């Protein structure tokens, strides 16, 4: 596999595991670790955009179905919404 792509994946794995709150660390790192090897380059870019959303926006979307900041237009957010720990 492309070395640049592998470095990008490692960056995303790191960002998903160090969010600032333990709940988000567990939720996002579990999601990313489960799916990252199945995502193509376009989905990895979407994942990066998804990880740029604030924790509160992601949690509200996941738990309360509150949609903010166009989170619902991100392809990854739809996969994430179906994800269960």
How would you explain this protein's 3D organization?
By secondary structure, the protein is mainly alpha-helical. It has one domain (3-82): Flavinator of succinate dehydrogenase (DNA polymerase, domain 1, Orthogonal Bundle). The protein has helices at residues 3-17, 22-35, 41-51, 55-64, 75-82. Helix 1 runs antiparallel to helix 2 (22-35) and helix 1 packs parallel to helix 3. The longest helix has 15 residues, at 3-17.
List keywords for this structure.
5 helices, 85 residues, 0% strand, mainly alpha, DNA polymerase, domain 1
Category from helices, strands and their pairing: mainly alpha
CATH class label: Mainly Alpha
**Helix-strand pattern, N to C?**
HHHHH
State the CATH superfamily name.
Flavinator of succinate dehydrogenase
List the SSEs and their pairings.
Layout: H1 3-17, H2 22-35, H3 41-51, H4 55-64, H5 75-82
Quick take:
This protein has 85 residues and is an all-alpha fold.
